[in-house]
Amino acid sequence: MIALKKVLCVAVGFLTLLMVPAFAQTQSDYKVHVYEEAALPGFLLQPGSYIFRQPSVSNPDLFEVMKPDGTTVGFVEAIPAQRTDTKYTELDLSAPDATGLRTVQAWYPGGRSDGFEFVYTHKEMRTLDRLARAQNVSSSVAGEP
Question: Which of 89, 92, 99, 122 has CA 20 to 30 A from 36's CA?
Fold first, then answer.
């Protein structure tokens, strides 16, 4: 009976140790600054600071994009990416398209060589171009350059 209690105590202690890291895992937040209007799949980012958060450890390719005040801008999925150059940039942007829109092609947290690539469908690109055109028109009407 005493041996059974010892075995149970050891088993409970071992399971407790295994569970602590699972409960200790927190969301990963990455601060990113965008210097010019750029698009992610599904939405436009205006110049400013953002937080990219991995809301789930079970899906490390899903990111929540938030403003510094915690307001959610949107969610985006990415695929792992590697780069061999040594430039220190966080965001790789495309060349401007016909509407002047630039897309975020890849994101390398902290300028690392491993990061995330964003994939855009044709439908998303058409939607983003439409949003960019509408935003440019509203900026012109408001008297902004």
Answer: 122
pLDDT tens per residue, range 90-128? 899 999 988 888 999 999 988 888 999 999 988 988 888
Spatial neighbors of 17 by CB under 8 A, at least 6 apart, are: none
Give CA–CA dist 36/45, Å, rounded.
8
Give the span between the Cα atoms of 35 and 48, in whole angstroms.
6
Tokens of 82: 């590697």
d(CA 119, CA 117): 7
- Contact at 8 Å (CB) between 117 and 81? yes
**Residue located via tokens 């994101």:** 107
